Amino acid sequence: MKVCDRGVFESDRVLYFLMGEHQMNLRGDLMRILDDGGFRYKIIPDAGHGINHERPGIINEEIVQFLLEE
To answer: Does residue 62 sit in helix, strand or coil?
Structure first.
């Protein structure tokens, strides 16, 4: 993974971002980068910063499904 001239990460690997829905208003720049770069992501409902602790079942299922797709 490297940073290109626009400050956006480029990677030859498939990336999947999982983010909690709380405080999404603070992540405007990140969301714009993900959308502009065509990155795959999912916003996890009823979760904040510690999504793997707050919603472990959903996170584990998302990771397993992601890995099975590859």
So the answer is: helix
**Whole-Å CA distances, 60 to 22, 38, 42:** 19, 23, 13
52: which 2 tokens? 């793997």
Q: Using one digit for the tens of pLDDT, what is the confidence trace for 24-33?
A: 766 778 888 8
pTM for the model: 0.74
Q: Collapsing DSSP states into helix, strand and coil, what is residue 49? A: coil
Domain boundaries, the chain: 2-69
CA distance 37 to 33: 6
Angle, CA of 26, 29 and 27, to the nearest 5° = 25
On whether the CB atoms of residues 55 and 44 are closer than 8 A, the answer is yes
Maximum Cα interatomic distance, the chain, rounded to a whole number of Å = 38
